[in-house]
TrEMBL record:
The gene is SI:CH211-182E10.4. PANTHER family: SI:CH211-196P9.1-RELATED (PTHR31025), SI:CH73-42K18.1-RELATED (PTHR31025:SF19). This is Si:ch211-182e10.4.
Length: 163
């Protein structure tokens, strides 16, 4: 069995002597080979659905030559989200998988209040919110520091996934 294993920041070709007995056994093998200690699920590019990602439940569904994607479980995401910016250069942080859907961080109280009032005004009168330069700067700085805490230099493909 030949697998193309896709992580957030690397792609690896992996040859297995035989098909694992179950998807859980494949996950154990991948944890060992890739030296990953967090919990994850596997998705594979299903040829029946034009290569769209499908959760791997039954190992028999996986073709002999296939591409699998590593997807963090919820428990691993919560651990990753508790990291602080003080460990920006640590190897663990740089190789960490993305935490899933991006959670908008909390902003300073005055900006949160302005955004809430702006949403209320838009819902009532469809009037757009006008932010000052300082407010925009505060929002962007907070977003940038949150994004940077996940991965300092995302690839073009990762940026395109967000847009």
């Amino acid at each position: 069995m030949i697998l193309r294993v896709v992580e957030s920041d690397r792609v690896i070709k992996l040859k297995l002597d035989s098909r694992p007995a179950s998807s859980d056994e494949l996950i154990k093998i991948l944890k060992e080979k890739l030296e990953v200690d967090c919990d994850f699920n596997l998705k594979y590019e299903d040829p029946d659905f034009d290569g769209r990602l499908t959760c791997l439940v039954d190992i028999e569904e996986l073709p002999q030559k296939s591409c699998v994607h590593i997807s963090l479980t919820q428990d691993s995401r919560s651990v990753a989200s508790t990291d602080t910016l003080s460990d920006v250069s640590s190897p663990e942080r740089l190789s960490r998988l993305p935490p899933g859907p991006f959670q908008i961080p909390k902003f300073p109280f005055d900006i949160e209040l302005t955004l809430r009032d702006g949403n209320t005004e838009f819902e009532k009168n469809e009037r757009l919110l006008q932010l000052s330069r300082d407010q925009k700067h505060g929002i962007l700085e907070n977003l940038a520091s949150t994004i940077y805490s996940f991965k300092a230099y995302p690839s073009d493909k990762e940026i395109a996934m967000v847009l």
